[in-house]
Design a protein that fits this description.
alpha+beta; seven-stranded mixed barrel; two-stranded antiparallel ribbon; about 30% helix; about 25% strand
């Protein structure tokens, strides 16, 4: 079972689906550590003053944002913390769009979502509804103090959360020298297009991810294994690593599905979220009172 990165809920309307967030990808690059050639001690990074070339300590470092040539606005850690988006344990779905409407360039990092706290049925309900509608959820979520735009996508038995790049992070192609669109405008002959299409058809196949692997990594790791088996190894003191997790308890509000659907008709904007939270709070309180009686 992979490590849970985050626990919270998917929210749309009055419906809350308690979920855990799990990594769906892993780095496959070779993790080269820097070592001192003379002693094989681990080598870290130094904080160097670029003007004087001298090392400085952490307490003498402040954060600045350049605004103009050589001009910086300095921000304190407290000012930056206050500017961070509030950490919430909710994936707020704002709308549903067609999957094909989001260009590949926006896709950033995939995660798995798995139901927790008896949220299996409503989790499956959302997954099957998205599949039937041919839509994906467009949401906002805060992960580790950073706000992300994200797509909620059904994938087999799972719901996946794929973080998206913000539009401001996408560079335009207008600065590039590209051939004009359209085969005629680009000077492509019909016979050339036919031959290219025939080649594409001949090389076409179904997507089989197991057919592809990192050949560079395989070659380097084969060399590492060979040297290891030959006894060509050196003892190095490993650096300590710590993993932080922030658990959170979430109330399952599946029973609000019917009321949520009714309340959504004719409503839009910020009033959705406000109404959702008020109704969710009152229903949860009523449920606790009923159980207590």
């Amino acid at each position: 079972m992979p490590r849970t990165l985050w626990k919270g809920a998917i929210s749309f309307g009055l419906v809350h689906i308690p979920v855990g967030l799990y990594p769906a990808s892993q780095e496959d690059d070779i993790d080269f550590d820097w070592l001192d050639k003379r002693t094989l001690d681990p080598v870290g990074y130094k904080r160097i003053n670029k003007r004087t070339g001298k090392e400085i300590t952490k307490e003498h470092i402040v954060k600045g944002v350049e605004r103009g040539q050589g001009q910086y606005v300095v921000l304190s850690d407290e000012e930056i913390r206050n500017a961070y988006p509030k950490t919430t344990q909710t994936i707020e779905i704002e709308s549903f769009v067609k999957a094909g409407d989001i260009p590949f360039v926006y896709l950033e990092r995939p995660y798995y979502l798995a139901p927790i706290n008896k949220g299996d049925k409503v989790y499956a309900l959302l997954r099957e509804t998205l599949l039937a509608a041919g839509r994906i959820g467009l949401a906002r979520v805060v992960i580790q103090t950073k706000q992300h735009l994200a797509a909620l996508v059904p994938a087999g038995p799972a719901l996946m959360l794929n973080t998206l790049r913000w539009p401001s992070e996408i560079r335009t192609w207008e600065e590039l020298k590209l051939p004009p669109e359209g085969s005629k405008a680009a000077g492509i002959k019909p016979s050339e297009l036919d031959m290219a299409r025939a080649l594409v058809d001949d090389m076409s196949k179904d997507w089989e991810p197991e057919d592809y692997h990192n050949e560079f990594r395989d070659a380097v790791m084969a060399l590492v294994d060979k040297k290891h088996e030959a006894g060509d190894v050196h003892e190095v003191t490993p650096q300590e690593r710590t993993d932080d997790a922030t658990p959170s308890n979430v109330i399952d509000l599946t029973e609000l599905l019917k009321r949520s659907l009714a309340g959504k008709k004719g409503k839009a904007g910020d009033s959705k979220t406000s109404a959702s939270r008020k109704r969710a709070s009152s229903t949860a309180a009523a449920s606790k009172k009923k159980k207590a009686s």
